[in-house]
Amino acid sequence: MKFTDGLFFESAREVAKKYAGIEYEERLIDNMCMQLVQKPELYDVIALPNLYGDILSDLCAGLVGGLGVAPGANFGEEIAVFEAVHGSAPKYKGMNKVNPTAVILSAKLMLYHLGKKKPRNA
Predict the structure, then answer these.
(1) Phi, psi values for residue 33, rounded to 5°
(2) Residue among 35, 50, 114, 53 at smallest CA distance from 82
(3) 27 in Cβ contact with 55 (< 8 Å)
(4) What does the angle CA 119 – CA 121 – CA 122 come to, to the nearest 5 degrees?
């Protein structure tokens, strides 16, 4: 994969040149996983292709308690999608076994994105 991710890296480098004030680093996925486990506080934003994003989101969800508590947000130029990282878990429908935390936190991210914030004196 060091050699097949060329288009993504090439595009990322071009975009990074336009934002000199933002630090840009490249990491291989296995090293990035180790970095997030050992020093997650060093990272604010990570831009990744879809497969690597899925790998890291599952890893990070495991670090904070599991997939059931991890919200998800995907931003495009005009559209954003908010959902639980684990998906909908349809096999548990009607069994009262699913933890709704991830869906609730995803809804919170959506409301923040839409500019809806909790009133300060509420």
Answers:
(1) -60, -45
(2) 114
(3) no
(4) 65
Could you tell me the two tokens for 54? 């899925």
The β-bridge relationship of strands 80-84 and 71-75 is: antiparallel
CA distance 48 to 36: 14
DSSP state, 82? E
Give the list of residues 6+ apart from residue 1 with CB closer than 8 angstroms, or none.
28, 29
What digits encode the pLDDT tens for the residues 44-56? 889 999 899 889 9
| Residue type, position 110, single letter | M
- Give the whole-angstrom CA distance, residue 84 versus residue 74: 11
Cβ proximity of 43 and 75 under 8 Å: no
Distance, in Å, from the CA atom of 25 to the CA atom of 22, rounded to the nearest integer, reads: 10
Q: For residue 67, give the nearest of 80, 52, 83, 81 by alpha carbon.
A: 83
Q: Provide the token pair at 106.
A: 């995803």
| pLDDT tens-digit series, residues 4-53 | 888 898 999 999 999 999 999 999 899 999 999 999 999 988 999 989 98
